Amino acid sequence: MIFEFILLNLCSILILAININKFLEDMCDYRQSQIPTQGVNELICNQNEAELSDKKDGTWASLLPISPAFSRVDLGNEITTFGRRSDCDVVLSRDSLICAATAYSNIHFKIKREFSIKTGSHALLEDLSTNGTFINGEKLGKGRIQALKNNCEISLSKKDNKAFIFIDLESSDDKFYPSQLRDKYTID
């Protein structure tokens, strides 16, 4: 009799926890659906080509925000860490991020710049998270490293939680296109 009573109470608690979790997911989806669509011109943060290519203070790349929950990040260090911990270079705080902050790891990912005599410098993203880091919609996986190309899209924890566009300020991929074309379009 007591065993049945305890079992019934445990089942009730489990059902309540499942319902609370579903409610929180629905609220998060609702809040994210309320974020206004960001136009292409806003994606460039209202900065022109000259501002993006201006390498102040040794900046070699920038992360442009896709969502209003994120801010522009200029990469000037050889290694830049991103996560919830206060000692990360870029802190992903609950105040500035919408709903998904609890899904971010203490150190979610890092971007490092490496040099090679043969191929020059490369930006590498290393996923250090439990919930995942996505590059162009593909999950990288904890402990895995991938080279970032100009205009790569970085998402955190979920494929649709789009955070940044990687801009390599030292990239010469588009230098052979006419300036009229480069000024008007982002070339991938």
Provide the descriptors you would attach to this structure in a database record.
188 residues, alpha+beta, six-stranded antiparallel β-sheet, five-stranded mixed β-sheet, 4 helices, 11 strands, elongated
Molecular structure report:
- By secondary structure, the protein is an alpha+beta fold.
- The protein is 25% helix and 27% strand.
- It contains four helices and eleven strands.
- The strands form two sheets. Strands 2-1-11-10-7-8 form a six-stranded antiparallel β-sheet, with no helix packed on it. Strands 4-3-5-6-9 form a five-stranded mixed β-sheet, with no helix packed on it.
- The protein is elongated.
- The N and C termini lie far apart (68 Å).
β-strand percent reads 25-35%
User: Whole-number average pLDDT?
Assistant: 75
Total number of strands: 11
Cα distance spanning the termini: 68 Å
Unreliable residue stretches: 30-35, 37-54, 96-101
How many strands, which pairing sense, and closed or not: the largest β-sheet?
Answer: 6 strands, antiparallel
Helix content: 25-40%
SSE arrangement, N to C = HHHEEEEEEEEEEEH
Radius of gyration: 21 Å
Query: How would you classify the helix and strand content by structural class?
Result: alpha+beta
The DSSP helix count reads 4
**Strand order, largest beta sheet:** 2-1-11-10-7-8
Outline, from the CA principal axes? elongated
Provide a concise account of the structure shown.
The chain has 188 residues and is an alpha+beta fold.
Task: List the SSEs and their pairings.
Layout: H1 2-33, H2 40-43, H3 49-53, E1 61-65, E2 73-75, E3 79-83, E4 90-91, E5 109-116, E6 120-127, E7 133-135, E8 138-139, E9 145-148, E10 153-156, E11 162-168, H4 179-184
Parallel strand pairs: 3-4
Antiparallel strand pairs: 1-2, 1-11, 3-5, 5-6, 6-9, 7-8, 7-10, 10-11
